[in-house]
């Protein structure tokens, strides 16, 4: 394991946890796209940076997850005894068909565009309450005080987590970012992640008991009923996928709101345009997703030999890392100044939510939460200014890209 971590610092093209990469990955992406668009990195994974190969890998059935095999190759055979890896191996995100299809079909109805549209009044209510509590202060941290509360509250509503249990989640849930990074975890990080996983498992087992006694109109109750109805879902799968929904449901959306607000304030003409024409908000959210996505990468494994991916031959069983954030800046698809934020850009269609069978389940929910949060903030606090737009502090994770804080005053 130590060998891997040391090796990570020696790759001149793809060194995603280096401070420089975290601060601004985009010049690094540009170099990858123009010099080695399917780059074999120091861990033996192939890194795709252009839109063409990245989009293809996400949609093509010759690429899958094969998660357990991949982790064993990376860490050794005992890795699946670690609670955090065992739990992640049951996430629908890490499954191939038919298990993926079975797990996804159990929850997909809760996330349809129609169901999410119906949640608009509740989302607006949470944003209004959050702002009402801080509007008299004259300053806030847009991440902690504003962006964070909305997605956590909404996913807790959907899962049926009782109001009086939520404070602990509000305080402790931003810990898991490193789990998804393409640089192996250290022993210490695995230990910490195990502790977090076991705490979540204990909490959810208690909540399951409560919902078995007192069913609600929520996702956990529905999934418990599916579990009891027979062979649709094991208890381990249930707990793991609830944990996935809980985590996926907020860290990413907090960062969409934070990265979007930062980008907007660094482009004052675009900020002025959005304030003068609030109807541009829907397209602006797509452009925020493209310009600085809160999810920078996802991965696949080759399920058969691939004769030609961007000029490279990739044998069966190799990892492919798909740089979504780089595909989103590819001039072949975005010929008009891809490094500039343009909220009126036509046909944005970023790869930020992935593609193919794993396309983000929460995409529409995230879009609407960000839309309501940012539109309401600009309307209610038109004088708001960022205290430090030029050198913001980024969280030290690569796949989940987001700010530690974003102080603002008005
Ligand atoms: C800006 C916000 C978000 C971004 C950028 C994002 C990004 C992504 C991406 C890239 C994938 C596909 C990964 C792959 O192909 O390997 C994905 C999958 C997923 N996302 Fe999101 N996500 C966001 C918000 C959400 C929300 C709000 C939820 C749920 C409440 C959610 C739940 C999921 C789930 C369950 C999957 C796995 C789907 C599957 O494997 O079939 N995401 N997300």
CATH superfamily: Cytochrome P450
Order of helices and strands: HHHEEHEHHHHHEHHHHHHHHHEEEEHHEE
CATH architecture: Orthogonal Bundle
How many individual domains?
1
Q: Main beta sheet: strand number and arrangement?
A: 5 strands, mixed
Helix content: 40-55%
Distance between the termini: 48 Å
Ligand roster: protoporphyrin IX containing FE
Low-confidence stretches: 1-8
Determine Rg (CA atoms, Å).
21 Å
Explain this structure to me?
By secondary structure, this protein is of the alpha+beta class. The protein has a single domain (2-409), classed as Cytochrome P450 (Cytochrome p450), CATH 1.10.630.10. It contains 20 helices and 10 strands. It has helices at 2-7, 19-23, 26-35, 51-59, 67-75, 83-88, 99-107, 113-117, 120-134, 142-147, 149-159, 166-172, 187-213, 219-228, 235-248, 251-266, 268-276, 281-291, 324-327, 363-380; strands spanning 38-40, 46-48, 63-64, 139-141, 297-302, 306-309, 312-314, 319-323, 385-386, 407-409. The strands form 3 sheets. The chain has a 5-stranded mixed sheet, with helices on both faces. A 3-stranded antiparallel sheet has the order 4-10-9. The chain has a two-stranded antiparallel sheet with strand order 6-7. Helix 9 packs across helix 11 and helix 16 (251-266) packs across helix 20 (363-380). Mean pLDDT is 93; it is low at 1-8. Bound molecules: protoporphyrin IX containing FE (HEM). Protoporphyrin IX containing FE (HEM) binds at residues 58, 92-93, 104, 155, 244-245, 248-249, 252-253, 256, 293-295, 298, 352-354, 358, 360-362, 365-366.
């Amino acid at each position: 394991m130590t060998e891997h971590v040391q090796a990570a610092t020696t790759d001149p093209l793809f060194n995603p946890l280096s401070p420089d990469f975290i601060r601004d990955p985009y010049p690094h992406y540009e170099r990858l796209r123009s010099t080695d668009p399917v780059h074999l990195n120091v861990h033996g994974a192939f890194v795709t940076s252009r839109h063409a190969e990245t989009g293809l890998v996400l949609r093509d059935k010759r690429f899958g997850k094969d998660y357990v095999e991949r982790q064993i190759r990376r860490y050794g055979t005992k890795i699946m005894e670690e609670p955090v890896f065992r739990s992640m191996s049951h996430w629908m995100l890490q499954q191939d068909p038919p298990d993926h299809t079975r797990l996804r079909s159990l929850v997909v109805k809760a996330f349809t565009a129609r169901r999410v549209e119906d949640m608009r009044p509740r989302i607006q209510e949470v944003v209004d309450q959050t702002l009402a509590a801080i509007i008299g202060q004259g300053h806030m941290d847009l991440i902690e005080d504003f962006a964070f509360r909305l997605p956590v509250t909404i996913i807790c509503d959907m899962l049926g987590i009782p109001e009086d249990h939520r404070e602990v989640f509000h305080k402790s849930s931003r810990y898991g970012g490193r789990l998804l990074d393409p640089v192996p975890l250290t022993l210490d990080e695995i230990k910490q992640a195990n502790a977090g996983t076991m705490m979540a498992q204990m909490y959810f087992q208690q909540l399951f008991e409560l919902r078995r006694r007192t069913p609600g109109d929520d996702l956990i109750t529905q999934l418990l009923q599916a579990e009891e109805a027979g062979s649709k879902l094991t208890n381990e799968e249930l707990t793991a996928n609830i944990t996935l929904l809980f985590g996926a449901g907020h860290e990413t959306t907090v960062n969409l709101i934070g990265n979007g607000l930062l980008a907007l304030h660094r482009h004052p003409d675009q900020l002025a345009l959005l304030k003068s024409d609030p109807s541009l908000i829907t397209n602006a959210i797509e452009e925020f997703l493209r310009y600085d996505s809160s999810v920078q990468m996802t991965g696949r494994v080759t399920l058969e030999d691939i004769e030609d991916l961007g000029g490279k031959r990739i044998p069966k069983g190799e990892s492919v890392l798909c740089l979504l954030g780089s595909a989103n800046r590819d001039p072949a698809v975005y010929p008009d100044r891809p490094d500039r934020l343009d909220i009126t850009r036509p046909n944005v269609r970023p790869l930020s939510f992935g593609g193919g069978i794993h396309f983000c389940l929460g995409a529409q929910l995230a879009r609407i939460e960000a839309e309501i949060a940012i539109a309401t903030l600009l309307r209610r606090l038109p004088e708001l200014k960022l205290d430090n737009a030029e050198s913001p502090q980024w969280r030290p994770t690569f796949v989940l890209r987001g700010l530690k804080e974003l102080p603002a005053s008005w």
